[in-house]
Amino acid sequence: MTTSPIRVALVDDQQLVRAGFRMVIDSQPDLEVVLEAGDGVQALRLLADRAADVVLMDVRMPRLDGLAATARLTVAAGDGGPRVIVLTTFDLDEYVLEAIRSGASGFLLKDTPPEEMLAAIRTVHAGDAVIAPSSTRRLLEHLVTALPADRAPDGPAQQALAALTGREREVLVLMARGRSNTEIGADLFVAEATVKTHVGRILAKLGARDRVQAVVTAYEAGLVRPGDPE
């Protein structure tokens, strides 16, 4: 049975960047670039008429930036819409956090190696938003410094975590450390299917669209802190 390629949309105001991404993505038999846009306004207009599975979204663009475009896209499309991967650099910490809150399924550094970008597209399309665990954790630990140091003990993130069972908290910590479902199962000596059930319940209780949003909540609540042992 032939499987349709994953449809990718490229949104970046630099044509050369888009050309490079397209060349790498279109070289893969299971991936296909279906549209390109130079800003958020154009992206939303094109995506209204052309379906995409995954959107690579730059942050800094004219007319409508990637954050606003991501928020509008995810709100309008709901759970059935495309997954958004935000392209960023370390000097955009607070914007990354805002992008995740806006509905992005994750992020990549602009200088990410091609193979890591390809893996991220496939990972997000599969519904598992742990993108390049080392980069994800490094970025999360970097941006967590932007969070208030005197977070209220009864803040929204803490209240959300209060609904989790002890086992679900363990699973969330391992998710934050970049573990896959298979690895979490091995760490906790449970079946992968059981881990998937725990992850689903965690997302539902936290009101998170995917794993990355859940992990951000764990950092915001202080359940996971920069420098915690692996």
From TrEMBL:
Entry coiled-coil feature ranges: none
Q: Which InterPro entries match?
A: CheY-like_superfamily, NreC/VraR/RcsB-like_REC, Sig_transdc_resp-reg_C-effctor, Sig_transdc_resp-reg_receiver, Tscrpt_reg_LuxR_C, WalR-like
Task: Give the Response regulatory domain ranges.
Answer: 7-125
Q: Acyltransferase among the record's keywords?
A: no
Instruction: State the PROSITE patterns in the record.
Output: HTH_LUXR_1, HTH_LUXR_2, RESPONSE_REGULATORY
CDD domains to which the protein is assigned, alphabetical: LuxR_C_like, REC_NarL-like
Entry's Gene Ontology molecular function annotations: DNA binding
Q: Pinpoint the HTH luxR-type domain residues.
A: 157-222
SMART domains, per this entry?
HTH_LUXR (SM00421), REC (SM00448)
Q: Which UniProt keywords apply?
A: DNA-binding, Phosphoprotein, Transcription, Transcription regulation
Where 4-aspartylphosphate occurs along the chain? D58
Please identify the protein, giving its name as recorded.
DNA-binding response regulator
Which species is the source of this protein? Paraoerskovia sediminicola
